[in-house]
Amino acid sequence: MADSDALRSRRKRAHAAGQHHLCRRCDALSGPLPPAPLPARDGAGIDPRARLEQLAVRLQTAHAADPSDAAVARVLKDVLLALLPPPGAPDAGDDDPLAAILALDPVS
Predict the structure, then answer these.
(1) Is residue 11 part of a domain?
(2) What average pLDDT score do residues 80-106 get?
(3) For 59-85, how does the pLDDT look when each residue is reduced to its tens digit (9 = 90+)?
(4) What mean pLDDT comes out for the span 94-98?
(5) In angstroms, rounded to a whole number, what is the distance separating the alpha carbons of residues 72 and 60?
(6) Which of 23, 56, 63, 78 is most buried by a 10 A CB count?
(7) Which domain holds residue 55?
(8) How far apart are CA 97 and CA 99, in angstroms?
């Protein structure tokens, strides 16, 4: 059963005043979130390029499953653009990480 207007008003006023005894799902009841672990300083941290390539493969699969999803297409485009070398950078040769992704489903 839904709460009455009076109870919701009391809960809102108490929450705004910092009194969370009436709150049901309040961040103040659960306490602060634990800090995210930082990558190790010994060089075993996260490789951003490898993570972007993994993300591009997952997005390409999602885009192939539902090509009408504009949000997935937009994020896929942004990730692929982030993976491109900057203009004027030396050519990496045949070792192109995007070639396998782009060969999966050519956009027509």
Answers:
(1) no
(2) 69
(3) 999 999 998 999 999 999 999 999 887
(4) 62
(5) 9
(6) 56
(7) 46-84
(8) 6
